[in-house]
Amino acid sequence: MSSPFGAIRSQRLVSSLLLLRLHHQPHHRKALHLHRFCRSLGSSITTTSNNHRHRPEAKHSSSSQSRQRLSNRPFNRLFASLRDETQQEIMTVNTTDRLVALRAAMSRENVDIYVVPSEDSHNSEYICAADARRAYLSGFTGSAGCAVVTKDKAILSTDGRYFNQATKQLDSNWELLKQGMPDVLTWQEWTCKQSEGGKTVGVDATLITAQQAKSFEARIKKAGGAGLKGLEKNLIDEIWTDRPARPNNPVIVLGNEFAGQPFQEKLEAVRKELEKKKSPGFVVSMLDEIAWLYNLRGSDIPYNPVFFAYALVTPTTATLYIDSAKLPSDALAHLGDAVTIAPYTSIFSHLRTLSAEVKATAEAANEPVKKWLISNKTSWQLSQSLGGEDAIEVVRSPIEESKAVKNETEREGMRKCHIRDGAALIKYFAWLEKTLLAGEKIDECQAADKLEELRSVGENFKGLSFDTISSTGPNAAVIHYKPEPGACSVIDPNAIYLCDSGAQYLDGTTDTTRTLHFGEPTEMERKSYTLVLKGMVALDRVVFPKGTSGFALDVLARQFLWREGLDYRHGTGHGVGSFLNVHEGPIGIGTRVQYSEVPLAPGMVISDEPGYYEDGNFGIRIENVIMVRTVKTTHEFGGKPWYGFEHVTMVPMCKKLTNLELLTKEEKIWLNDYHKEVLENTKGFLEGEENRYVREWLERECEPVPVDA
């Protein structure tokens, strides 16, 4: 999945007939929440585009039956299970009444300007429907952006991926700030300018980090504003009359056969960090960190096996702040006496009490007050609950870095799940080629459904890791493309097809992109594909010394495109979790400064996914998941160990799109060796007469290429 993209997707309208049917399905309550959310987004809606293609009947995959079956899986996204019965259009929502109500609430709180971020209170990349406040207020449903409202103005700031969508979805109440365009203010700059004359800026204190709040307030005051007011209530929640409830699904225990380390050992590692810092405790607010720390998984966020909770680790105690209804008996037994359970929202009052006790004890002993540790992603409100800036130390989360380095069990799980996942993808690509060349019509959504069906029968499958990007021709040039039922394209066998997809398994998380062609590609398509392939291989083959970051390696994947004056507008790689978020920090490969902060280390798992895109024509991306490993070198300069990568993705490259004349001898050897690995690792999953054509397809794609002298 192209880095660094990914967040909540556009919502869909659910028909009344569907709701009646879903009352008899296991997830009907979720469907009702979805319906209420969609209805609340668009109580007054104008369609701005209805140029939809009719979807052909699927002849090889009963999509609706497949979705109905898959929707019963606890970690599958509800939205995916409803594709057949829902439709998405680009719509404009009349936001007049919402803005009137918000401005009245602002007056009651003595706020002149109100900021509505996209994130939830855990700074999550993906959010649930109940936290889509910016989408509700503005009508803009893209994954990235920030809304700001004054007494008489409203702006929405977003990046280039969403200019077209925002233009269509925003009504006349809103001004669009096109982030990154010349002479266009950022939302922070715009807000500071509006604050001139002593105006107060308000924001939900749980939706902005402590560091962001400090920096933003300084800028506001410098511009002549009164300051930044952190509100304990969310003003959108007050006016959102039909807001869906937050998910409250039960958690599951991830056994040590998958986690590889008891949670008690993880707690002790955190306590060692507390001892080094002489700190009374570490507050954990990131959902994936909490899930990893306690060896628990959930299903509260689409595609991400996490659950709503907070955690606090002290030198002698561990507390999990969670709705107790989410903890079945086996989870309670798993946590035992090592963890205290407290209500989810009680963390704020609990931190205030603990902080006051620590301060009083220090003052009584005439000693310096010990500082609480929080990560750079912890909310302003949690920081304030601990006593503010003087009571905290902002650190890089020790859990985040430990989580990024997979243990031996997790590494082996990643290898195994990628082999099973690769076999499903091989079956899918063979089926797709066979179906298209037989002259049958398959649209992008039907194809994605078939892939999910093939994955779902695999061992340890728990759902998708993100919405499948199934894209044909010019749609493949849209980096963040998502096919929608009723609006997606029929796959053209004479055009490039890009498929970026992944799944969640108990033993790991997958993310694979392949670009294929079922007809006769143009020379430019073959050249572009081969340049991208060369970059992917260069990164896969690199050897580097300890201390090297992903920032330093990014150029390897781009170098061949750069020589031709070409490039791509996304990161080259993102960290990948183990049955956790498909986008995982703190590592990445790209030009962002943050990718220089943490060096790559053995056991870290990351994607390798360069690409090239021609707007309105085609798009190419090739993605393998790779794992950092120690390599043997002839020398060890400076006494440093040297690292390289192990690829765990097992899916062949597209032979038809590869121009062998552009590959070096070493690259051809790599390609042959890789395809030999793919054949050997996946053939055991492709047995039986029904898979004869799949094996033939795989053997053809993996046939060794000639290696010139």
What would your notes on this structure say?
The protein has 709 residues and is of the alpha+beta class. The protein folds into four domains: 13-91, no CATH class; 98-239, Creatine Amidinohydrolase, Chain A, domain 1, CATH 3.40.350; 252-404, Creatinase/prolidase N-terminal domain (Creatine Amidinohydrolase, Chain A, domain 1, 3-Layer(aba) Sandwich); 408-650, Creatine Amidinohydrolase (Alpha-Beta Complex), CATH 3.90.230.10. Helix content is 36%, strand content 18%. The chain contains 23 helices and 32 strands. A six-stranded mixed β-sheet has the order 8-7-6-5-9-10, sandwiched between helices. A hairpin with a 3-residue loop joins strand 29 and strand 30. The chain starts with 12 loop residues before the first strand and ends in an 8-residue tail after the last helix.
Quickly count the domains.
4
Count every beta strand, where a strand is a DSSP E run of 2 or more residues.
Answer: 32
> What's the CATH architecture name of the largest domain?
Alpha-Beta Complex
Radius of gyration: 26 Å
Strand content: 15-25%
Name the average pLDDT. 89
| Inertia-based shape | globular
Helix content: 25-40%
| Topology-level CATH name of the largest domain | Creatine Amidinohydrolase
| Major β-sheet annotation | 6 strands, mixed
Which regions contain 5 or more consecutive residues with pLDDT less than 50? 4-89
CATH classification, class level of the largest domain: Alpha Beta
CATH superfamily descriptor of the largest domain:
Creatinase/methionine aminopeptidase superfamily
Protein name: Probable Xaa-Pro aminopeptidase P
Function: Catalyzes the removal of a penultimate prolyl residue from the N-termini of peptides.
Catalytic activity: Release of any N-terminal amino acid, including proline, that is linked to proline, even from a dipeptide or tripeptide
Cofactor: Mn(2+)
